[in-house]
Design brief:
By secondary structure, the chain is an alpha/beta fold. The chain has eleven helices and eleven strands.
Length: about 325
């Protein structure tokens, strides 16, 4: 949904014409403002506006991954700044919840972080293992997010049936603080706790529920493309006494449809690379990423033609699966 605005600027000169500057407006889908990943989306948009002067990009608050892809399909947003690799692949392939919404035109732009998802519960909830969530009121993740979809899928695989409290992050945080629900699942900022979890911790003691090796093995057997992460003991800054922690997670990416203009996608990728420092300042976990290398290594769908050109210019070796069909013509 590119919008073109002609900003006329009349000035005096011998010829006397008025020159019109064409400005392209794009809308970038993100997540909810209470998430650390929203700060990333804002910083990435700032980098784009800084280094691609012909663009005026704005951030739209959304329900994150699943919602972003649905909005792109409907033409409501131009870029999904926050879409997990799992959601991206399933939508592109037409599997899982996307069986009747196959999206073959979805294309990868860049990967910006690898994040773990934490099972967070109130310390006084009586929950010490995932099985204890059976019948408990629990938020599986923000409505419309990859966390929500994946949490429900994993609990189904493990045969655990919580009483789901469906809603946004801010609502879940309030419900945890008030004791109305036992806890929630929240994507971290990289391997660290998300801002919303830190908010819960200001007045509420929490516990993190780690997955067992048996649970990890069972989920991997059912859905082999879900990534799993381990945080070493003492690795969580806000909880330095936390033992080693195991859970699933996600590679989080920026995506577009293949119909998004190649030259703009190319310039946006270059802007994300140039704006690394401003992005890291807002979202420190981005510092752990080598965007060109990591993007082409993790993607399970084709790159956007503009991204393909940008990474190819940098000399990055691009696997065949990542080469967009439209670039082969």
């Amino acid at each position: 949904m590119l919008i073109f605005l002609f900003m006329g600027g009349t000035f005096i000169c011998p010829a006397g014409p008025a020159w019109a500057q064409k400005k392209k407006f794009i809308l970038i889908g993100s997540t909810q403002t209470s998430s650390s990943h929203y700060a990333y989306a804002v910083a990435a948009t700032k980098a784009i506006n800084t280094y691609v002067p012909e663009l005026n990009a704005s951030v739209a608050e959304t329900g994150a991954s699943v919602d972003n892809v649905k909005r792109m399909r409907a033409g409501q947003i131009d870029i999904g700044a926050i879409v997990t690799e799992k959601v991206m692949y399933e939508a592109w392939k037409g599997i899982g919840m996307w069986k009747n919404m196959v999206t073959p035109d979805l294309r990868m732009l860049w990967a910006y972080t690898q994040s773990i998802d934490y099972y967070v519960v109130r310390e006084d909830s009586g929950v010490t293992k995932l099985e204890d969530l059976e019948g408990k009121k629990f938020n599986p993740g923000m409505r419309g997010s990859a966390s929500e979809a994946t949490t429900k899928e994993i609990f189904q695989i493990l045969g655990i049936k919580p009483d789901y409290h469906v809603g946004g992050t801010a609502d879940a945080v309030s419900a945890i603080k008030d004791g109305r629900i036992a806890g929630y699942v929240k994507t971290g900022a990289g391997l660290q706790l998300d801002a919303s979890t830190l908010d819960v911790m200001t007045l509420t003691k929490i516990r993190l529920i780690s997955m067992t090796p048996e649970q990890v093995k069972k989920v991997k057997a059912a859905v082999p493309y879900i990534p799993f992460f381990t945080v070493p003991a003492g690795g969580i800054k806000a909880m330095p006494k936390q033992p080693e922690y195991h859970s699933w997670g996600m590679v989080v990416c920026g995506v577009a449809m293949k119909t998004f203009p190649e030259d703009l996608a190319y310039k946006m990728v270059k802007a994300i690379l140039k704006g690394r420092d401003m992005i890291v300042a807002a979202f420190p976990a981005h510092a752990e990423m080598n965007v060109p290398k990591d993007t082409v290594e993790v993607t399970m769908i084709p790159l956007h033609a503009g991204a393909y050109r940008a990474y190819k210019e940098l000399g990055v070796k691009i696997p065949e699966r990542a080469v967009p069909p439209e670039a082969k013509k």
